[in-house]
Write a structure and sequence with these properties.
22% of the residues lie in helices and 0% in strands. The chain has 58 residues and is mostly helical.
């Protein structure tokens, strides 16, 4: 969710926790317990990076 990221984003527009601006941005990340990412509706790093690149290209 917006403002709940744990560090910088893939775009490089910020480098700190709590600075995400929109919900479900594939360029943001949050640290969760191993094995729970998919259950929480998230993506693994490789998936997020691919989606972010696809969105940036369009």
């Amino acid at each position: 969710m917006a403002g709940q990221n744990d560090c910088g984003n893939l775009a490089g527009t910020h480098s700190c926790a709590g600075q995400s601006k929109v919900d479900n941005d594939p360029g943001e990340w949050k640290l969760v317990a191993k094995g729970t990412c998919k259950d929480l509706g998230g993506m693994l790093k490789a998936e997020a990076k691919k989606r972010y690149q696809e969105q940036s290209a369009s």
